[in-house]
Automatic annotation (TrEMBL):
Protein name stated in the entry: Adenylate kinase
Family: Belongs to the adenylate kinase family.
Gene name per UniProt: adk
Sites where the protein binds AMP: 31, 36, 57-59, 85-88, 92, 133, 144
Binding site for ATP: 10-15, 127, 172
CDD domains in UniProt: ADK
């Protein structure tokens, strides 16, 4: 199964992607990890990404798509994948689909984890306290949620228009949410 996992920051995407990876036997492709690995390995795309990050710039969509396409060339994705952290906006969703269709690995399902914003603020405040994370202050979290609402939330509409979207309730125990995600794949 070829899956895109969507949801606001703090919705549990990373946790759920790791569990789905185990249950489905397909790789979890985190764009953040892809980027870090390419930079660490010093690949040509990694060097370009490092130059952008060192200059304080965002890594371009073109570069991210290149990293994703490169990763999709590995044998382990032939049986499927769980893509997490991308696309983050409508333009990226369309470009991603073009790339994945060209390499004959199109998205089969977009799973959107739905979690109430106040619940997310509480979750991330707890995580910030436990892990001493400065990127999870309430102000930063609310800003990240506003950016998500504005830029990333429309991506769900895109996948819905293609009959690929499954909205999944992201509240409950980790196990309950994971079972809902698996059920949504049927």
């Amino acid at each position: 199964m070829r899956i895109v996992l969507l949801g606001p920051p703090g919705s549990g995407k990373g946790t759920q992607a790791a569990l789905l990876k185990e249950r489905l036997g397909v790789p979890h492709i985190s764009t953040g990890e892809l980027l870090r690995a390419a930079v660490a390995a010093g690949t040509p795309l990694g060097q370009k990404a490092k130059a952008a990050m060192d200059a304080g710039e965002l890594v371009s969509d073109e570069l991210m798509l290149g990293l994703i396409e490169e990763r999709m060339g590995a044998d382990d994705v032939k049986a499927g994948y769980i893509l997490d952290g991308y696309p983050r906006n409508l333009a990226q969703a369309r470009a991603l689909d073009e790339v994945l269709e060209r390499i004959e690995l199109p998205v089969e399902k977009a799973l959107a984890l739905g979690v109430d914003e106040e619940q997310i603020v509480q979750r991330l405040a707890k995580r910030a306290a436990e892990e001493n994370r400065s990127d999870d202050t309430e102000e930063v979290v609310r800003n990240r949620l506003a950016v998500y609402r504005e830029q990333t939330a429309p991506v769900t509409g895109y996948y819905e228009s293609r009959n690929l979207l499954a909205d999944v309730d992201g509240l409950g125990s980790i196990e309950e949410i994971n079972q809902r995600l698996v059920d949504a794949l049927d």
